């Protein structure tokens, strides 16, 4: 018998089951002390860091592996 038809009840919100939380953790660690003077600077910093994470598959895979 397989578990394909089995329904599992999950909590309403479980951060440890959400791989997005791992990405945000990596992201926030690097830009938490960023000093900016306008929205354009923060936008540029956010896009740059997310692109860096995107091209590091081990980091992304680690976020999925810990869920």
Automatic annotation (TrEMBL):
Gene3D superfamilies the record matches: Ribonuclease H-like superfamily/Ribonuclease H
Domain of life: Bacteria
UniProt-listed InterPro entries: RNaseH_sf
Name assigned to this protein: Transposase
Native organism: Actinacidiphila acidipaludis
């Amino acid at each position: 018998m397989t578990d394909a038809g089995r329904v599992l009840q999950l909590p309403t919100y479980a951060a440890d089951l959400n791989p997005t939380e791992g990405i945000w953790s990596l992201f926030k660690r690097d830009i938490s002390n960023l000093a900016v003077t306008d929205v354009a600077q923060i936008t540029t910093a956010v896009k740059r860091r997310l692109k860096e994470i995107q091209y590091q598959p081990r980091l992304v895979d680690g976020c999925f592996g810990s869920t």
